[in-house]
Design brief:
The chain has 228 residues and is α/β, with parallel strands linked by helices. The chain is built from ten helices and six strands; from the N terminus they run H-H-E-H-E-H-E-H-H-H-E-H-E-E-H-H. Helices cover 41% and strands 11% of the residues. The chain has a four-stranded mixed β-sheet with strand order 1-4-6-5.
């Protein structure tokens, strides 16, 4: 089936049913699940813990996370029994971004080194990539389908049509913990240098023409430049 046909066949299913069907129709060892352990991550992680307990959740440790994010990760790991696998940039490259303060001059390059490239190293082993993106978060995500071709994989967004109200209701219904920075005015949380307080994702890369880190949008020009 094409990505469009898959999207249509999954559309009428509940969020949990979508995840259940995915694991029924595709080999489990070919399904890549990632999480940033950000402010909205708890829904996908909770669903995964019910549908496929113990399935690996890949977390990209950029070395620039807020301490509160790491604490939130640990809280969810303990509460949901998650099996987290950490991915990191090569030490020399990560150190370069620290010494160069790359995030100040070239946010795209910093994201590529510390986020995109580490994930790219494991993508060839998978055919499906599950992500907890939600359409209300920004314009780019609003236009995504349930299934979307991406870097030779099928990207699966089981929560793409979840509204902010649905999110809040789900969290309250299942009594899921909140990222502590939400109470301090951060509605979206990434790396410390590129995250400010704000509604929605407005605090991400503030005053820079950038809305995604490169994991979920197209930054082939960076990949080509780095390869060259």
């Amino acid at each position: 089936m094409t990505a469009k046909e898959l999207s249509e066949s999954y559309q009428s299913l509940s969020f949990q049913e979508r995840l259940e069907r995915l694991f029924e129709e595709f080999p489990q060892n070919k399904i890549l699940v990632t999480s940033s352990f950000g402010t909205t991550s708890m829904v996908l992680l909770h669903l995964l813990s019910k549908v496929r307990p113990g399935h690996p959740v890949h977390f990209i440790d950029t070395s620039y996370h807020f301490p509160e994010t790491l604490a939130y990760r640990d809280e969810l790991v303990k509460g949901l029994g998650l099996n987290v696998v950490e991915l990191k940039a090569k030490p020399k490259k990560n150190q370069f971004t620290k010494e160069n303060q790359t995030w100040r001059f070239n946010q795209d390059l910093c994201c590529f080194i510390n986020k995109v490239e580490p994930l790219d190293t494991i993508k060839p082993g998978y055919s499906i990539w599950v992500s907890g993106l939600m359409g209300f978060q920004n314009v780019h995500r609003k236009n995504l389908n349930l299934f979307q071709p991406r870097d030779g994989l099928l990207k699966f967004h089981p929560l793409i049509d979840m509204s902010k109200e649905d999110l809040n209701l789900y969290q309250q219904l299942f009594e899921l913990p909140t990222h502590s920075l939400v109470h301090k005015g951060y509605n979206s949380v990434g790396c410390t240098h590129c995250t400010k307080k704000g509604q929605g994702r407005e605090g991400r890369w503030l005053d820079v023409k950038k809305t995604e880190c490169g994991l979920h949008d197209n930054q082939d020009w960076i990949k080509n430049r780095m390869a060259g």
